[in-house]
Amino acid sequence: MRFIEGHAPSYDLTYDDVFLVPSRSAVESRFGVDLSTSDGTGATIPIVVANMTAVAGRRMAETVARRGGLVVLPQDVAPDAVAEIVSWVKERHPVWDTPLTLAPGDSVADALNLIHKRAHNAVVVVDEDGRPLGVVDEAACTGVDRFTRLHDVADRRVVSLALDTPPRDVFDRLGDDPHRVALGVDGDGRLRGIMTGLGALRAEVYTPAVDAEGRLRVAAAIGVNGDVRAKAEALLKAGVDTLVVDTAHGHQEKMISALKAVRDTSPTVPVVAGNVVTAEGVRDLVEAGADVVKVGVGPGAMCTTRMMTGVGRPQFSAVAECAAQARALGKHVWADGGVRHPRDVALALAAGASAAMVGSWFAGTYESPGDLHRDEQGRLYKESFGMASKRAVSARTRTDNAFERAKKGLFEEGISTSRMRLDPTRPGVEDLLDSITAGVRSACTYAGASTVEEFHERATLGIQSAAGFAEGRPLPAGW
Ligand SMILES: NC(=O)C1=CN([C@@H]2O[C@H](COP(=O)(O)OP(=O)(O)OC[C@H]3O[C@@H](n4cnc5c(N)ncnc54)[C@H](OP(=O)(O)O)[C@@H]3O)[C@@H](O)[C@H]2O)C=CC1
Ligand SMILES: Nc1nc2c(ncn2[C@@H]2O[C@H](COP(=O)(O)O)[C@@H](O)[C@H]2O)c(=O)[nH]1
Ligand SMILES: [K+]
Is 329 a residue whose pLDDT tops 90? Predict the structure, then answer.
């Protein structure tokens, strides 16, 4: 990465402050760009979903891993619940999505309660043996009594295909409608998966992030308090593929001892630790055993740290400095927080990160764990909240005595409620992944890079004024 002449900054920069300059390219197609990471986590796209309770749960983990990203389960989830989620994710099919199922005697109201849990807009009606009888979508549930039984509204013209049907053939079988679904069935005709035309296209474009046994990968976070070693051992036993040791101030001695304890549990499992924003922080965490250092203090959408404390660092410069240090030590960084547009992921990679971590943006999707709500204008949204907010701290300390809880409640560095709207044109996390990876692929070809590593090497950047950033925004309503 280099700045164009005369643009070398004397102050720290945010993503909005910088732009990428195109350069001569020999990369003929955006599909010729390999987005896989080289940080040992096995991700095939450079996107990690943040360990936030409002963002990262089992459906997010399954869906994002199938497209090559990694989801970090939050440290606030009880160890037995993490074990249960991990084994559930590991049992998912790496290509076919998990179907939502109901019985023929269930009602339209049951289907409507379930249908937005996933983006494929279908509930499959199955018999007692799990064989598909028909498919119900939202349209079939509209304009009928909510108590209508599903066998009266289900579309029985199902497309059932063997699970080993190549996605390209699934796509061709479904024809022009990207939202029609195919059902994946086993040799006994039992339902095992579901795929839309769009899902079939994605299955050809993305590569799932899988472990050595071909099962979807998942990461999990651990805090720095309590018996960290025992927690790490429990997560490894549960089958977690990457451990993330996470606390607000990652450059503290409690983190260093926690990290050493985690590293001791396994010499090979990828260990991520953070958050820091300085080269010294990176050095200390790498020395204590981190393979990847998580960078970012204050850029998060739910985060009030900078307003409360004045502490933090504009994210682009923090990532650039920390990535340079990690690279000098043969290690990596994840750019954590502040991603609002696909361009921010491209800029994090240009700065040298191996992946960008996204939280709040993904809270506003079907796959995040929260309940779906409608606002006064009828628009869909989900609630999000910060992991250092009163809401999260009070949940985390629920087993402490009242005095300790009250004491911990004094420190609040996050928002307790916010509404993350579902973009009607991109309501599923895969829609957002499509948009981000399209932006990043394109950015790579503008720089003449066919890998993420080459992109960092070749990226040429400049600094822009607020007017420069504003000029780049689309103006859909005229001016
Ligand atoms: N990236 C960011 O900008 C930030 C992220 N977060 C996220 O919030 C979640 C909760 O993290 P966290 O608040 O660290 O909670 P943890 O449960 O991980 O506890 C942090 C521990 O560190 C001690 N500590 C010392 N100094 C600090 C400090 N300045 N801030 C916080 N703890 C400190 C605390 O002691 P004591 O309570 O006695 O002081 C406590 O024992 C994590 O997921 C974290 O990533 C939170 C803030 C900023
Ligand atoms: N200071 C705080 N930071 C928080 C809190 N909850 C999460 N976070 C950080 O934000 C990123 C995600 O950033 P986003 O812009 O994509 O939402 C996450 O990974 C944490 O590092 C919080 O309560 N306070
Ligand atoms: K912020």
Answer: yes
